[in-house]
Amino acid sequence: MQALIPLGAVVTLAGLALLLWCIVKVARARRAKLSDEALRSTLQATIPYNLAALCLSAIGLMMVAVGILLG
Q1: Which of 22, 23, 38, 66 gives a 20 to 30 Å CA spacing to 47?
Q2: The pLDDT of residue 7
Q3: Does the pLDDT of residue 1 top 80, yes or no?
Q4: DSSP string spanning 14-51?
Q5: Mean pLDDT of 16-41
């Protein structure tokens, strides 16, 4: 169970990296002064990645917590 802690940390960092990618993508779209409809489509395309990033980070943190409790 000791391997669960570093594995959870890697999963959490992957989720955070994906979350940062989402932030950068939306910030670039806003800076590009796109039309309302184009900006809306960019945001809608980014939402699934954002939710996946949050889920991945939460799962990684749970893995770390379980590894600590069982270790």
Answers
A1: 66
A2: 96
A3: no
A4: HHHHHHHHHHHHHHHHHHTT--HHHHHHHHHHHHHHHH
A5: 93
